[in-house]
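This week, study the protein below.
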Amino acid sequence: MANRAYLTRCDSDQIYPSFQNPAFKPGEHTLLASAGCVPLLWWFLFAPEDIALKQFTVRGQTFEEAAPVAPAEVALERFHARLPLLEEWYAANGGLAHHHELLASWISSHGGGCISIEWQEIACLHAENVFRSAAEEALWFIADNDIGAKKPLTQLSTIFETRRFLTRPELDAENVEQEDWWNFFRIMGESHIAETPWG
């Protein structure tokens, strides 16, 4: 089974809202998933101060997890404001306006007061604290409009940074290489339960 990250939107202002929360409905509140990585565009919804800590107790063992959570309106406003930054940083790849519009529209079509990423399944693929350090570094770089963010973002999203980022209609053309499909879903994320507009 693949380790996955999940983008959620619901009324809980806690991280990992799907865990031990009877009000959480996966088919409604989990917007996207991604196998083996946290997709590139998800990072641009959040800021360093959105990282929250929470303790969980399972079978008598207590452990602490960290993840981002932000008010949905704040996250979406931030996401829209960062489109020029995305276009500048990834101009050599053809830009990300198409991808940005698709994702913003999908997130906006759902209700819920807060947006979060459940990334523990990805974090556990790395040595202890390595993922969290890289995640915090990437968010600080983005907040500072520092192009240094591209290096950790490439590692965290596993995109092929030297390829042009094809739009969804372009992917339907003949002779599209597997790496281009890989990039698209590593930029966007993919369907979890509810089908996305991009498949």
